[in-house]
Amino acid sequence: MEIPYELRYAIENITSELKLNQLIKDAQNISNKYRAESGTGKRLVTSPNEVIAYSVTRMPATYGAVLTALKNTLDLVETPPHSLLDAGAGTGSATWATHSLLELESMTCFEREGSMSEIGRKLMSESESLSKAKWVNGDILKSDIPVTADLVIASYVFNEMNAEERTTGILKLWAATKMLLLIVEPGTPAGYKQIMNIRKLLLENGGKIAAPCPHDNACPLDNDNWCHFSCRVPRSKLHKELKSGNAPYEDEKFSYIAVVRDDLKKADARILRHPYIEKGQITLELCKADGLKQVKITKRDENSYKQAKKAGWGDGFNYK
After folding, report:
1. 5: buried, middle or exposed (CB in 10 Å: 19+, 13-18, 0-12)?
2. DSSP state letters, 84-117
3. What angle do CA 286, 158, 248 make, to 5 degrees?
4. Domain limits for position 291
5. Residue among 275, 257, 280 nearest 311 (CA)
6. Domain boundary residue among 212, 235, 260?
7. Are residues 57 and 206 located together in one domain of the fold?
8. What's the structural domain count of the chain?
9. Same domain, 245 and 127
10. Do 295 and 193 fall into the same domain?
11. Residue at which a domain ends, from 215, 235, 260
12. What does pTM read for this prediction?
């Protein structure tokens, strides 16, 4: 996937006057803190320079994860959302992603860190439509949620909280949701466990799963596996320098849950792995309402084969 030109230009603009050595140092500090302190409730990115380094190294991946999760969800929703609450917005990655898919009448970015909000506003000022987004300073746990919205998104927010805080935060965001709540977390065993806890909580409070699960039953994966997906995003030259890597892209692994208030027609199945393609045959690992299925689709099944050729990891799949 491509990162929008306006976002790429905005990130280049805010880094243009900073020294490379300082950006590299700040990026390393962020990486160390996320490895050591996620889930403790501590504030992980606070200084303006760290926020700028975060924008370079994390915004593209977060944008890609939210875009992929939201696209797979919107495929199942009959009425598109017209208002957005980006909760724990950071520098606004989820708002950028949503803007790429929807025509929004209102956008609210709710963020506790002043430095994050400041950089987020600067980035969005490069976009005529996104510059209209409203930024509200506040904490999901301690503040009143400022608005209700058709679509509420929290991306990479709850991995910074402990279990009790997550429960409080999720219920507050669900109360602010008119149509659809989307939660995106790291595609790790820990991130998946958080998503499963969030899934259970929302089902207990009247939610209906839209994606990725094609059912509301218990997850059929065994304890050695976890449900996650992946998106590939390009790296800029500066991104590669800050990550000390030469690869022109990075693969972002993520887990997510999308919950709606009203009934909807779910996908028949969800593809859990990259399709395995052989001559005249495609093998898919599917999650279905009756459990996990490995299916081999041949050219004889013309309609399913055409669908499978276009399908990828994480896509919904119509297969009875």
Report:
1. exposed
2. EEEET-TTTHHHHHHHHH---SEEEEEES-HHHH
3. 65
4. 269-317
5. 275
6. 260
7. yes
8. 2
9. yes
10. no
11. 260
12. 0.93
| Interacting residues of 45 by C-beta distance below 8 A, sequence separation 6+ | 30, 33, 51, 54, 90, 113, 115, 116
Q: Give φ, ψ of 211 to 5 degrees.
A: -160, 155
Residues 140 and 167 in one domain: yes
Task: Please report where in the chains the tokens 């509200």 appear, as a residue.
Answer: 136
Q: For residue 9, give both structure tokens.
A: 């230009």
Q: In a structure prediction context, what are the per-residue pLDDT tens digits for the chain, which is 320 residues long?
A: 889 999 999 999 998 877 888 788 878 777 765 555 554 455 567 678 889 988 998 999 999 999 999 999 999 999 999 999 999 999 999 999 999 999 999 999 999 999 999 999 999 999 999 999 999 999 999 999 999 999 999 999 998 788 999 999 999 999 999 999 999 999 999 999 999 999 999 999 999 999 999 999 999 998 889 999 999 999 888 888 887 778 889 999 999 999 999 989 899 999 999 999 999 899 999 999 999 999 999 999 988 999 999 999 999 998 76
